[in-house]
Design a protein that fits this description.
Layout lengths: L3 E12 L2 E12 L3 E6 L5 H8 L7 E6 L2 E3 L4 H6 L2 E4 L11 H6 L13 H15 L14 H14 L4 E5 L7 H16 L3 E6 L2 H7 L2 E6 L2 E7 L5 H9 L17 E11 L6 E11 L2 E6 L6 H9 L6 E6 L2 E2 L5 H6 L2 E4 L3 H5 L6 H5 L10 E2 L2 E2 L1 H14 L17 H14 L4 E5 L7 H16 L3 E6 L2 H7 L2 E6 L2 E6 L6 H8 L4 E2 L5 E2 L1
Parallel strand pairs: 3-8, 3-9, 6-7, 7-8, 13-20, 13-21, 16-19, 19-20
Antiparallel strand pairs: 1-2, 1-4, 4-5, 9-10, 11-12, 11-14, 14-15, 17-18, 21-22, 23-24
Length: 515
């Protein structure tokens, strides 16, 4: 009997203009949590997509329990007990949670009718056993991303998979949800399930994995035991240079009010209460104000209300002295607002467009990019090439790459490049480093601090506590659609923030905290 439940030997996978996996070998032991670490575009998701049957390799072989297997499609993978939670969830928005979980693995009776009652019981039993709380009757479009991820995990468990692939599973989760997921993973490993965990978050690797395999630019760098390494060594292996893990910035010098929000209320699409309830705050030039909170407490709707993606039911929004409460999204952009959105696929990119078309989405009407209504493609190309170089956006075919084919992290870098280059007085940055590796995070943090130091106002919405503490000059905590506290990152602790975020503590009108 082989020591390894899965072996991927000498895998090579090519796409136009790029070798995504160049002679990579990965071995997974039964009952271990094996982390796969690498920069954006290092080939991690591609390698796992080969294992899951989404891609066929040009060379190499896969063994299960020591025997060579051929995985032509995800159904073959499922038959071998391999399940995968993808970085961008594969859920159908208009279906319920239950329908998404059983889709493709339905139990039917003699006449082909669905046995939904049995399926529901199995799903509820699994969710209780593993602490994966979900509302089986809710539609996927109405639940938080954290909940959607639980649905993806339950999909794997429903199919009785023994080998579980998690592709960037914590990119969309809150600190508390991440801790829960780590516990769930440990529970799986104790039961003898084997886990491949793709990530570039070093804290999580140190906390939960047994071994780590590092990839860089499509090549295998090495495999180490987690207990014998540290974060700095792993980041050096991953990026190929020493990386600054701390955020360095000089104290803020806030100036005029750039954004003033008064009594903003945004209705909820899920329940009858308001998602954002009578929220007021100001963001000044030369400061980074962070809205912190557990996912699903109104941050998303607050940003939608500010940027024009959703209509607010009441309240005023003033940008540089101009009332933009009723303005369209484009008018708000022209008034001086850049926006790095939470959902890069839904609101950040046109996935079927090329990279250069996406880069110029906000600017194509400017004289330099058009002449009497005709796009000046040479200027667009020059502009895109400059941004690609400045922000290290990696893709197979440069400016003409179709955006859909790029890795999630490089899609994110493209949006950040476009929005920061607009050089507007207000930057609304929502989860700006989601899905980025340590090298890219370091660059994004430096760029955001540079925006502040130019005298711009930055409104940051982040679920990463380290980012909240390290990057912001002031922190507002949102809980159930209301601002429950304002703290100074230099004078608070992650524990205190956690109390505000969970609703256990709130400040009164005078700024006094009530536990």
């Amino acid at each position: 009997m082989s020591e390894y439940v899965i072996e991927m030997n000498h895998i090579r996978k090519e796409f136009p203009g790029i070798v995504a996996n160049d002679d990579i070998t990965l071995q997974l032991k039964k009952g271990e949590i094996h982390a796969l670490l690498g920069e954006n575009g290092a080939g991690k998701s591609t390698l796992m997509s080969v294992l899951f049957g989404l891609y066929q390799p040009e060379a190499g072989e896969i063994k299960k329990d020591g025997k060579v297997v051929k995985i032509n499609n995800p159904n073959d993978a499922t038959a071998l007990g391999i399940g995968m939670v993808h970085q961008h969830f594969k859920l159908i928005d208009v279906f319920t949670v239950l329908d998404n979980i059983i889709l493709g693995a339905e139990t039917t009776g003699a006449l082909g009718f669905l046995k939904k009652k049995e399926a529901r019981e199995k799903v509820i039993a699994l969710s209780e056993k593993y602490g994966l709380k979900v509302d089986v009757d809710a539609k996927v479009e109405d639940i938080t991303v954290g909940m959607q991820q639980r649905v993806e995990i339950l999909k794997m468990l429903y199919r009785d998979n023994e080998i579980l692939i998690f592709d960037e599973p914590t990119a969309v989760l809150t600190p508390q949800e991440i801790d829960e997921l780590m516990e769930i993973m440990r529970g799986f490993a104790k039961e003898g399930k084997s886990i491949l965990f793709i990530t570039h978050k070093l804290n999580e690797i140190m906390a939960v994995s047994d071994r780590v395999t590092v990839l860089r630019k499509g090549k295998y760098v090495g495999t180490v035991n987690t207990k014998d390494t540290n974060k700095q060594e792993l980041s050096n292996m991953m990026v190929g240079r020493p990386v600054q893990l701390e955020i360095h910035k000089k104290p803020a010098t806030p100036g005029e009010t750039v954004l003033k929000v008064e009594g903003l209320t945004v209705p909820s699409k899920i329940h009858k209460n308001n998602a954002v309830n009578n929220v007021s705050f100001e963001v000044h030039s030369g400061e980074i104000l962070c809205i912190a909170g557990i996912d699903g407490n109104g941050q998303t709707e607050l940003v939608y209300g500010l940027t024009g993606l959703e209509k607010a039911s009441s309240g005023t929004i003033t940008l540089n002295g101009q009332d933009i409460s009723k303005s369209s999204i484009r008018q708000r952009a022209l008034a001086g607002m850049s926006h790095i959105p939470e959902d890069r696929h839904k609101h950040g990119l046109v996935l079927g467009y090329t990279l250069e078309q996406n880069m110029v989405l906000q600017k194509y009407k400017e004289p330099r990019f058009q002449n009497h209504g005709f796009i000046r493609f040479d200027e667009v190309r020059k502009y895109a090439e400059k941004l690609i170089k400045d922000f290290d956006v990696r893709s197979g075919q440069g400016p003409v790459t179709i955006t859909r084919s790029m890795s999630g992290g490089n899609q994110q870098k493209a949006i950040i490049a476009r929005e920061l280059d607009r050089d507007e007085p207000l930057l609304v940055a929502v989860q700006p480093t989601r899905g980025l590796d340590v090298g890219a995070i370091e660059n994004v943090h430096k760029s955001i601090v540079a925006e502040r130091d130019k005298g711009h106002a930055v409104l940051l919405v982040s679920l990463e506590l380290e980012e909240v503490m390290g990057l912001s000059d002031r922190i507002l905590i949102i809980y159930e659609g209301e601002i429950v506290g304002e703290v100074d990152p230099k004078k608070t602790t992650p524990e205190e923030l956690g109390l505000y975020m969970s609703g256990a503590k709130r400040q009164g009108k005078e700024g006094e905290a009530n536990a």
